[in-house]
């Protein structure tokens, strides 16, 4: 059983939290122990600015935390003695959550786009399809190119192969052949990969958007500026 009694401060559950055997199979909290939840005789203390204070009794560390109006947070529980730091734990948790949210927001996922062509595609349609492939590669996405054969076209796989090679050559500045052309039933498939990473493409897109916004604001400010009237000589 967990030691300790339920007192006025109701810290029974908190005191038992670090011990795995208190849970009987339940999940253990990932939160670090703070302040009076820390149950060791001494700690290796780190100051508010990251300075090494040294090994001090727990009571002294708690006294310093109260003096600085900060929390004593256990940052390395497995060390001997455990490492604790003086910090504003509420502010630390908030900033950590904001950083994680921003990281998820900026996280780049490579998407596989698909473009379908016919072996005997006319020049106008080819240029249109190629334009889409160029746009996808500029965005940092992979492109799966599928050549669809019908009827007697299935006996001429070289038509699809030459078309795929032509397309890869036309966009070689933006992408490369990640998966060589291969027959898949009545289709022939090739995968193009972008030279730029998704994160780079996203950063460039944001910079271009910011530049366009600045140009628009500059043009608007110029248009709203009062016209100069010629001075009388």
UniProtKB/TrEMBL annotation:
It is found in: Cytoplasm. Residues 199-219 have a biased composition (Basic and acidic residues). Residues 197-233 are annotated as: Disordered. GO terms for biological process: ribosome disassembly. Keywords: Cytoplasm, Initiation factor, Protein biosynthesis. GO terms for molecular function: ribosome binding; translation initiation factor activity. One of its GO terms (cellular component) is cytosol. The keyword Magnesium does not apply. Coiled coil: none annotated. Residues 34-103 form the Translation initiation factor 3 N-terminal domain. Residues 111-194 form the Translation initiation factor 3 C-terminal domain. Pfam families: IF3_C, IF3_N. Monomer. IF-3 binds to the 30S ribosomal subunit and shifts the equilibrium between 70S ribosomes and their 50S and 30S subunits in favor of the free subunits, thus enhancing the availability of 30S subunits on which protein synthesis initiation begins. Belongs to the IF-3 family. NCBIfam families: infC. This is Translation initiation factor IF-3. The lineage of its organism: Bacteria, Bacillati, Actinomycetota, Actinomycetes, Kitasatosporales. The gene is infC.
């Amino acid at each position: 059983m967990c030691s300790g009694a339920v007192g006025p401060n109701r810290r029974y559950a908190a005191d038992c939290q670090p011990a795995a055997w208190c849970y009987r199979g339940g999940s253990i909290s990932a939160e670090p122990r703070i302040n009076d939840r820390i149950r060791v005789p001494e700690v290796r203390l780190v100051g508010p600015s990251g300075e090494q204070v040294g090994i001090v009794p727990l009571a002294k560390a708690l006294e310093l935390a109260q003096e600085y109006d900060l929390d004593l947070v256990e940052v390395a529980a497995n060390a001997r003695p455990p490492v604790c730091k003086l910090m504003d734990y509420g502010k630390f948790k908030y900033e950590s959550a904001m950083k994680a949210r921003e990281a998820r927001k900026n996280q780049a996922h490579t998407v596989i786009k698909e473009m379908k062509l016919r072996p005997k595609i006319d020049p106008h349609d080819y240029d249109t399809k190629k334009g889409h492939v160029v746009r996808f590669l500029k965005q940092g996405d992979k492109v799966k190119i599928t050549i669809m054969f019908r009827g007697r076209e299935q006996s001429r796989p070289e038509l699809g192969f030459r078309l795929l090679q032509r397309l890869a050559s036309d966009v070689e500045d933006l992408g490369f052949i990640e998966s060589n052309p291969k027959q898949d039933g009545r289709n022939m498939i090739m995968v193009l990969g972008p030279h730029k990473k998704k994160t780079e493409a996203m950063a460039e897109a944001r910079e271009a958007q910011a530049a366009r916004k600045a140009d628009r604001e500059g043009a608007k400010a110029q248009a709203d500026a009062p016209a100069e009237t010629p001075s009388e000589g």
